[in-house]
Structures are given as structure tokens and as C-alpha cells.
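Page 42, continued from yesterday. The earlier attempt failed because a stray header line got pasted into the input along with the sequence. Redoing it now with the clean sequence only.
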Amino acid sequence: MLIKLSKPATLNTYVQPVALPTSWAPAGTKCVVSGWGNTMSSTADSDKLQCLNLPILSFNDCDNSYPGQITNAMFCAGFLEGGKDSCQGDSGGPVVCNGELQGVVSWGYGCAEPGNPGVYAKVCIFNNWLTSNMAHYAQIEK
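This time it went through. C-alpha cells are written below.
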């Protein structure tokens, strides 16, 4: 889903655009995930934006955590030992790696559970769709 704003966002210290990825970031790449969701499986702190540094995990680690459930449009990021993760209420939030939007918070089992890292939509898979739709709607505006 692409959301078209009724007017341009006001850019400032807290609101900035993020670039689409030029390529897929490899396992081990350090990223930042952010959201207003729960900080634990059962609590909410939705008035405070949370940010977490986490690494992209290998496909094998991801598939071992969720056998047969990971497609080429998904990736895992986080810590296999648990303790830090995106959580309920963060869905749709960004995963930014080296200034590029590599992922979107999607799903996982619980929050920060050992052996169950977060699963994210892989944005580079959708680059053509995103750029095509943005160009289409930009033309309509003219």
C-alpha cells in the first residue's frame, strides 16, 4: 500500500525522507527499526517513538527460526538470543540500513523471544512497483 499525502510533509529534524534501496543489504548489515509499539509482549508505550539497532540475519538463520514460512520477499533481523525486537504496534514501521529503507516491520512470534527474530518485508523486491506507482501519480498531478 502506498499512501499519498494531501499536501507535502514539512521536513525538519524529526521528519525526513528515506531513500529506496539500491540493492539488498547482506546479512550482518546494521540497521535501525523504529515504531510506537509495545516495548514488551503485553505492554504499550505508544506515545514514545522507540528505535533499535539490529543486524540483518542470514536466510538460513531466518528459515531455521520459521521453517518453510520465509519467502524471498521477507527477511529476519534481530538477535537469535532474544531480548531486543520490534513488537506489536510497530507493524508498517521502517527498517533503515545505511540510509536506505530496506524493510518494513511485518511479523514474528511474540517479542524478543529467543529463536524468534522479527520478520520484515524486503523493500527492494517492490522497488519497481513503488517507483512505477509514484511516477504514475506524479503524472496525474500535472
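Notes: The chain has a mean pLDDT of 93.
Reminder to self: strip header lines before submitting.
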